[in-house]
Amino acid sequence: MIGKEILGYTIESVLGEGGMATVYKGVNQQTNHSLAFKVLDNKLTSSESLMTRFRNEATLGINLDHPYIAKVFNFIKDENVPMILMENIDGCSIAQYFKDRKCNLSEKIEVFIKVLNAFGYAHSLKVVHRDIKPSNIIVDKWGNPKVLDFGIARIDTQEGVGLTRTGAHMGSLPYMSPEQIKGIKNIDKKTDIYSLGLLLYELISEKPVFDSETENSYLLPTKIMNDAVPKIEGAAYARINQIIKKATNKSPEDRYSSCKAFKSALLDNEVFKDIEGSNKNDEPKFPKSVYQAYLEVTKEDAVNNDPDPEYFSRSEFKAAIIIGCVVLLLFLMSQ
Ligand SMILES: Nc1ncnc2c1ncn2[C@@H]1O[C@H](COP(=O)(O)OP(=O)(O)OP(=O)(O)O)[C@@H](O)[C@H]1O
Ligand SMILES: [Mg+2]
After folding, report:
1. Which stretches within the chain are classed as H helix?
2. What is the pTM assigned to this prediction?
3. Is 306 one of the annotated active-site residues of the chain?
4. Residue 17 is part of which domain span?
5. Which of 251, 267, 283 is the last residue of a domain?
6. What is the overall mean pLDDT for the chain?
7. CATH number for the domain including 34?
8. Is 70 touching ligand 1 by the criterion CB < 6 Å?
9. Cβ 211 under 6 angstroms from ligand 1
10. What is the pLDDT of residues 60-76, one digit of tens each?
11. For ligand 2, a single-atom ion, which residues have Cβ within 5 Å?
12. Of residues 41, 65, 90, 131, which has the active-site annotation?
């Protein structure tokens, strides 16, 4: 592939390799613009159904438009080799980014809330990722996350179950939800909420909950089905541990109902209690940058005004009290 010319872009280097594909960097010599070319593995191209899925799922990615989702531009076949053309993201995986920069809790939660905004948007369009893991979220040099591989993940849960068993695609197993392990067909956004809970644990503790590197992969499914996510050590993490526990509940109904509910839970003074100093006068003490990330929801709300049954914002609570008082006053006046 290196040196090849595709659509005016010269393939210059390998950006990364996964279980099913290799991602190359292509540069247009005239404009210096770069693109990522995700090329399906040679041995998988013989499967007509995998080819069709690769294309279908690329189409799904093309229809997503969000600042924290890597833009998918097109699906092409070059000399019969299928490839997805994507935005080239100059950065590293979210886990690596936090490690390299030695990010504190507030910085991590700020980026994580942006990740939740991306998934909230996708869920509002009924798109479930199903393959959330650190390598599928790159953080760029400005600290913005970009979620990758939306939809391609469906291959994992359908044909891909076979791939996982043969060891050709082990990467995702540690992040699979119990319902994915069970092979339930109609999994929904609660599966992503679960994997996001595992991701949050990993980002804060800097170690994965379930690790295919160190654990016997045949025992892993049983562990995922039965073992609770461990607690992050330290009194300061009491609230975070509760949040992770809820997100990763084995039963989907008991998890957060939406990404919005998940991020609302994170916007809690208790989360930052022992980390950002004492909480005087009951003032909000989550950092401003975290609150700004929280407010960034635009498309999720615009596309689908998903009411959050688990959470009242401060303003909604105040509004409810004022309306209640007015109604009571009117009632008393009418007596
Ligand atoms: N658009 C992109 N821009 C920059 N780098 C990318 C892009 N897409 C993928 N990469 C890099 O290429 C690597 C391989 O990606 P790929 O999706 O094929 O596999 P993976 O997510 O690492 O693992 P798996 O195949 O198990 O899902 C990624 O880890 C990432 O570092
Ligand atoms: Mg990937």
Report:
1. 48-62, 94-101, 105-124, 154-157, 160-166, 178-182, 189-205, 220-226, 238-247, 259-266, 269-272, 288-295, 299-303, 314-334
2. 0.82
3. no
4. 5-87
5. 283
6. 84
7. 3.30.200.20
8. yes
9. no
10. 889 899 999 999 999 99
11. 136, 149
12. 131
